[in-house]
Amino acid sequence: MPELPEVQTMVSDLNKKILNRKITGFWSDTPRIFRYTTIEKISKEIPEFKITEITRRAKYILIHLKRKKENKLLAIHPKLTGHLLIKNAKEKENPKSYIRAKFFLDKNLVLSFSDLRKFGKIMFGNKEEIENLPDLKNLGPEPIGLNPKIFTQIISKKKKAIKQVLLDPETISGIGNIYSDEALWMSKIHPFRAANTLTNTEFKKLHKSIKEVLIKSIALRGSSIRNYRDTEGKEGGYKAVRKVYSREGLPCYRCKTPITRVKMGVRSARFCPTCQKI
């Protein structure tokens, strides 16, 4: 699943390539990916809107649109296998690219949403209405800019396993499965430790590790362990430097103990049983 660094990479690419472009048309054959809107509504309303800004909130890509005095917002969540591609309209499309929606732009550009599993989410409507939907309004604070004291105050109240807390977007938004494993390994904290049992020193280490791992992955344009690709269809570079995620059975980089994978609800936690004591 694209997490904060992958989504930020897409947002940065979009700002370089389609900012100030005008939307001329829309196509989709996948109704299930739309929330609070329909294919017909977008097809009718979105033409002639200009892309004025592209931002990120947690794992959402927010495309801000303006037409005269109208302000709309297009919000895209990649979910498990979604990503955005930018191509020239004349380019031949790969039949295995799993395109579920297309936004046709001026200058012969096409912004396409690829999603193998069809779990992605697209929302469109008046800017204030979309921003006030629970999907966005209930999101927790962003992890990179979060003050360490506030981080500790938020997390220390939770009784669940620390990894589960980090995965909750209403607590801290955008961290995700890959980077929670990586940050916990860096901090030497067991993923099943109850969050409220961490010491102040451990909270400081964890806060620092989360920030470091996210910034590093953004610099490397994300992680392409499975389906993620950037807007040109290229892989991210974080996969080559990961410490624990998807390394089960391989030796820990610190102590050589094999990395363990344990189910945690619908997710899994990867950790070193020697370095990360419970």
Automatic annotation (TrEMBL):
Gene3D superfamilies in the record: 1.10.8.50, MutM-like, N-terminal
Protein name from the UniProt record: Formamidopyrimidine-DNA glycosylase
PROSITE patterns in the cross-refs: FPG_CAT (PS51068), ZF_FPG_1 (PS01242), ZF_FPG_2 (PS51066)
Keyword Lyase: yes
Domain of life per record: Bacteria
UniProt cross-references to InterPro entries, sorted A to Z: DNA_glyclase_Znf_dom_DNA_BS (IPR015887), FPG_cat (IPR012319), FPG_Glyclase (IPR020629), FPG_N (IPR035937), H2TH_FPG (IPR015886), Ribosomal_uS13-like_H2TH (IPR010979), Znf_DNA_glyclase/AP_lyase (IPR000214), Znf_FPG/IleRS (IPR010663)
A Pfam match: H2TH
Subunit relationships: Monomer.
Reaction(s) this enzyme catalyzes, per UniProt: Hydrolysis of DNA containing ring-opened 7-methylguanine residues, releasing 2,6-diamino-4-hydroxy-5-(N-methyl)formamidopyrimidine; 2'-deoxyribonucleotide-(2'-deoxyribose 5'-phosphate)-2'-deoxyribonucleotide-DNA = a 3'-end 2'-deoxyribonucleotide-(2,3-dehydro-2,3-deoxyribose 5'-phosphate)-DNA + a 5'-end 5'-phospho-2'-deoxyribonucleoside-DNA + H(+)
Keywords: DNA damage, DNA repair, DNA-binding, Glycosidase, Hydrolase, Lyase, Metal-binding, Multifunctional enzyme, Zinc, Zinc-finger
Residue intervals of the Formamidopyrimidine-DNA glycosylase catalytic domain: 2-120
GO biological process: base-excision repair
Cofactor: Zn(2+)
Protein family membership: Belongs to the FPG family.
Keyword Transmembrane belongs to the record: no
One GO MF term attached to the UniProt entry: damaged DNA binding
PANTHER family xrefs: FORMAMIDOPYRIMIDINE-DNA GLYCOSYLASE
Domain FPG-type: start-end pairs: 243-277
SUPFAM superfamilies on file: Glucocorticoid receptor-like (DNA-binding domain) (SSF57716), N-terminal domain of MutM-like DNA repair proteins (SSF81624), S13-like H2TH domain (SSF46946)
